[in-house]
Amino acid sequence: MKVSIQLPAPPSRDYEIVIDELPTIALEGKAVVVTNPKVAGLHLRRLLEHLDAKELFVVTIPDGEEYKTMETIEFILDRCFDHRLDRKSTMVAFGGGVVGDMTGFAASIFQRGIDFIQIPTTLLSQVDASVGGKTGINNRYGKNLVGAFHQPRAVYIDTYWLGTLPEREFAAGVAEIVKMAVMFDEKFFEWLETHDLHDDANLKEAIKRSVELKAWVVNQDETEKGIRAVLNYGHTFAHVIENFSGYGSYLHGEAVAIGMVMANRLAMALGMFGPEEAERVEKLLARYGLPTDYAIDSAEAFYDRFFLDKKSHDNTITFIVPERLGRFKMVKGPARETVLEVLAHYEKGRGREE
Ligand code: NAD
């Protein structure tokens, strides 16, 4: 015997990403703003002036990647029940990627899913984390291993918030912008070489292009079955660097900068990407004070760590490398010797030699 369930097409989940001064946002029903003490202290008052909701609550969670846990999710959910939010309520993520990922996840499971909007306040979250609906938390097995794909109803990107962002955090966001350019858009890369992102008009332009490229990727592959994995360029190496250096020594974007330089070297070892192109990427990253070198104790130990990554399927790692500027290549399971040869350059910090 068989019974089939035939579901109607779900309502559209399309949404707008507004890159502009924050407008007044009208929210139906109750709303809860999720933020942390740092962002609240700096910017909550201005945010509240722009939110028009029947009833509005603020939930403050501790600041830091180490609090991106199920415990914090429980805390957010409890506050939502305390305030009697219902299925028509909206959550507002107000902060960097940590707040965004957690608010999105809490919204995806509160009463089986309610709306949320993203108001990202770091450059990294404006160009990357707030767009595309990946939400989640860390657990003892690793980063972002528990979560859901839950798209926001809207994303509002206002560079005003970035006025208080420390320079290192700013640069970490630039690394993700460079990533998009190297992978998908040579012209954008050339533009980045000649435009300073400390200028607000240039910054807005770069955010717009990065978000357009991310949207183009997500539109094709929401749940990372294919091309979305290209956004992991530099990240395979970065995760190992973060793992070895202890979370906190490098900001994620800094580890990604080193990881991209390493991936470029791998591309060259595989007969792609020229040394001149690699030099240009390194120069652009260094211009924003991003690290591009790293000392590895043992290439073998570094290599072995790749396999702890959740993205290594069947003990095969897929490396994302540039074939040339603006064109990516996914390389599945390159020869161990080739990767070790690349890593050997970094043993005792020799990555910059030659
Ligand atoms: P973060 O959220 O920890 O923010 C960095 C620091 O800046 C924090 O101390 C924060 O309080 C502070 N801050 C935020 N806005 C500020 C402002 N306007 N002025 C001054 N300080 C401010 O880190 P992040 O780099 O924004 O995001 C990293 C997180 O994003 C990671 O957890 C990562 O896994 C996640 N991420 C998610 C995706 C995705 O697709 N969902 C993509 C990339 C990264």
Model description:
This protein has 354 residues and is an alpha/beta fold. The protein has two domains: 2-164, Rossmann fold; 167-344, Dehydroquinate synthase-like, alpha domain, CATH 1.20.1090. It contains twelve helices and ten strands. It has helices at residues 37-49, 70-82, 97-109, 123-129, 167-184, 186-194, 200-220, 235-245, 252-269, 275-287, 299-305, 336-344; strands at residues 16-19, 25-35, 51-60, 90-95, 115-120, 134-139, 142-149, 154-157, 318-324, 327-332. The strands form three sheets. It has a six-stranded parallel β-sheet with strand order 1-8-5-4-2-3, with helices on both faces. The longest helix is centred in the middle third of the chain and has 21 residues, at 200-220. The model has no long low-confidence stretch (mean pLDDT 94). Bound molecules: nicotinamide-adenine-dinucleotide.
Shape: globular
Order of helices and strands: EEHEHEHEHEEEHHHHHHHEEH
Major β-sheet annotation: 6 strands, parallel
Query: What ligand molecules are bound, each kind once?
Result: nicotinamide-adenine-dinucleotide
Q: What is the CATH superfamily classification of the largest domain? A: Dehydroquinate synthase-like - alpha domain
Q: What's the end-to-end separation, in Å?
A: 70 Å
Could you name the key traits of this structure?
two-stranded antiparallel ribbon; 6-stranded parallel beta sheet; alpha/beta; 354 residues; Rossmann fold; 43% helix; binds nicotinamide-adenine-dinucleotide; Dehydroquinate synthase-like, alpha domain
